[in-house]
Amino acid sequence: MSRRIDIELTCELEDGSWTWRQAGARAPKGVLDAGLVPSDATVGTVLRADVESQIGGGALVTAIVAPRDRTRRVELIELSPRAAFEPVTQDRARREKPRDARPRKSAAPKTKTRDFSPPPPELPKRPAPKRLRAGDAHRTAVLEGLSPLQRTVAETAVKGGMKAVREAVAQQNAQLKADGKPEVSADNLVALVQELSPKLRVAEWLDRAEAALRDVEVLDLRDLRSVVVASDDPMVVREEQTRELASRLREALRRRERESHDEWLGDITAAIGVGRLIRALKLSSEPPKAGQPFPKELGDRLAAAATADLTAENGQDRWVAILEAVAFSPVKGAVRVTSVPGTVSEALAKTVARLAPALPAVAAAFGVVPAAGAPQPRPLRPQRPAARKGAARSPRDARGRGAGSRGAAPAAPEPAADAPASA
User: Both 143 and 225 in a single domain?
Assistant: First the structure.
């Protein structure tokens, strides 16, 4: 449901659009299409706008409202002459309070009841899912059971894989060659990594799986799926402990997917019920699991609501917002246009042309035919304002990613000349 706020224009971008923020505050903020901004607007101009919250944060300006006429109407009161002022004096005798008098009870204030219309029903607010934060207990146990040489090589492989091990050996050999010392053979170290890899992979999966099981009821479905998919690793399947844990996670994933699907359909139905069409369309394009069919009855309701809203009586900013949401929803093929605005704005014409491959029936109502083989459009993303010239760089950018930065693979130690392939 949209709300009306005062917004302040902060910067004009190269494509003509403007960045904005709520007047007197730092948020909400976003990017405003050039077609909505008055021609005489400048940086700092305050406008009255209808704003609709977007899924996942952010706000979308759907219309600019004309400012109210704040002209004050002043009516003068004519004063008639009056008689000369004569002061009046009054002596008030002090009355004694009877001894047996009791304090009078103050009368209860009269309350005036008013009939208020019930507020619109609230939409369900889902808590943000928790991201996976795996520990390192199992991986640390494997590393502590290795010799110093094995542990150094294993830690390098954990951070960057086999490529990091080869690069570390190459860097060390270059230094040894410059010092006139014999170089290190990379074959023994590569063989050592291949031997330790199965144990490290199983330990890493166990750390992630135990963390996922601990937060399975609130964990992000993407993280839970990644752990379940990784359980099919041949090295992981070998262990009895990992098979039992993977079975529990797989069952929890199926249950969570069913629950999330029901909540998703319930949120769409609730949004349609309170008239929040754009929210319902955007929700329909974000299913909790890809490939799930959209219910036909709910799809018919959503398409009918979108078709009923695409009329010439509605503002063209509303048209743009609805078409942007319809183009990526599962009901885009069922939405039709019964009447088009008499004069099409530049913003609406650009939107129809861009979305024509996804909405050919809507584009035909405007006389637009998509080119053969034209790629499907992508959802618009808010544009960030360009960084100012001469702006100070953050300490992270100033440091760069040199050899001492975090994540660089340590150099492998020089093994003895007779070190075996597997220490």
Answer: yes
CB 277 within 8 A of CB 331: no
Contact between 201 and 133 under an 8 Å Cβ cutoff? The reply is no
Query: Residue 59 burial by CB count (10 A; 0-12/13-18/19+): exposed, middle or buried?
Result: buried
Region 268-280 average pLDDT? 91
Strands in 83-132 per DSSP E: none
More confident residue, 372 or 93: 372
Q: Are 272 and 119 in contact (CB under 8 A)?
A: no
Whether the per-residue pLDDT at 199 is higher than 70: the answer is yes
Does residue 410 sit within a domain?
no
Rounded Cα distance, 221 and 129, in Å: 8
Q: Which of 72-86, 262-276, 337-351 has the lowest mean pLDDT?
A: 72-86
Among 283, 350, 277, which Cα is nearest to 307's?
277
Average pLDDT of 269-294?
90
User: If you search the block for the tokens 């939409």, which residue do you land on?
Assistant: 123
Average pLDDT, stretch 227-251?
88
Note if the bond before 295 is cis, omega within 30 degrees. no
Show which of 347, 365, 383 is a domain's final residue: 365
Report the alpha-carbon distance of residue 407 to residue 405 in Å, rounded: 6
The reported pTM is 0.55
Burial (0-12, 13-18, 19+ Cβ within 10 Å), 253? buried
Domain identity same for 249 and 281: no
Pick the last residue of a domain from 11, 46, 65: 65
Kindly state whether residues 232 and 314 are assigned to the same domain: no
* CB of 62 closer than 8 Å to CB of 75: no
Residue 75 lies in a domain: no
The parent domain of residue 222 ranges over 137-255
pLDDT at 48: 85
32 domain residue, yes or no: yes
Distance CA 316, CA 248 (A): 52
Query: How far is residue 225's CA from residue 228's CA, in Å, rounded to a whole number?
Result: 5
Q: Can you tell me which residue has the tokens 């019964």?
A: 338
Total domains in the chain come to 3
Identify the CA nearest to 124 among candidates 240, 273, 340: 273
CATH code (residue 17): 2.40.50
CA 77 to chain CA centroid, nearest Å? 59
Let me know if residue 149 belongs to a domain.
yes
- Mean pLDDT value across residues 293-301: 93
Phi, psi of 18 (to 5 degrees): -125, 145
Amino acid at residue number 98 = P
CB atoms near residue 394 (< 10 Å)? 8
